[in-house]
Amino acid sequence: MKKLIIFFLGVIIIIFIVVVYVGANNNTPKIENKDNCSNLSLSLTVKCINTYVNTFYKYTLTNDNINLTFDELKSLGGDCNDWSKYYIGELNKYNFNSTTVTIPMNKDSDHIMVVAYDSTGYCNIDEKNFQCYNYEVV
Fold first, then answer.
1. For residues 8 and 28, what is the distance between their CA atoms, to the nearest angstrom?
2. Counting beta carbons within 10 angstroms of the beta carbon of residue 51, is it exposed (0 to 12), middle (13 to 18) or buried (19 or more)?
3. What are phi and psi of 135, to 5 degrees?
4. pTM attached to this predicted model
């Protein structure tokens, strides 16, 4: 019985340490609006903007010759071209470099995504998803 009590106390202590450590090291901003994305690293800015986008994201095929307003994009949705334009605009507001990458899918359509970058690394941003990488010094 004594060993069982010691075992459960050990488990409780480990759980407590993990909860405290994770809580103390959580640098992710609270996303109530995209204004909380200021003064962050590239990867945290991309995560912040992406988290905001995912609160209202909709995919809708659109005419690429029409530029949607933010309100139209938010309410009606958009395709990869529209979302790429949105991300580029947001990244410019936070002074990050970005460019689009066009991937040919077939003779009638392409896919467009964004690459954001700075001196620390880069992020691939594709509508609802992103992946960031830090440069490694060799």
1. 32
2. middle
3. -70, 140
4. 0.74
Tell me the CA distances in angstroms from 96 to 15, 81, 86, 120, 126, one per residue in order.
Answer: 39, 19, 14, 11, 17
Length of the chain: 138
Give the C-alpha separation, 106 to 104, whole Å: 6
Domain boundaries, the chain: 31-134
Note the pLDDT tens digit of each residue in 30-79.
Answer: 445 566 899 999 999 999 999 999 999 999 999 989 999 999 999 999 99
User: Please, are residues 118 and 97 in contact by the beta-carbon 8 Å criterion?
Assistant: yes
What CATH architecture applies to the domain 31-134? Roll (3.10)
Task: Give pLDDT tens digits for 72-127.
Answer: 999 999 999 999 999 999 999 999 999 999 999 998 889 999 999 999 999 999 99
What is the Cα Rg of the chain in Å? 21
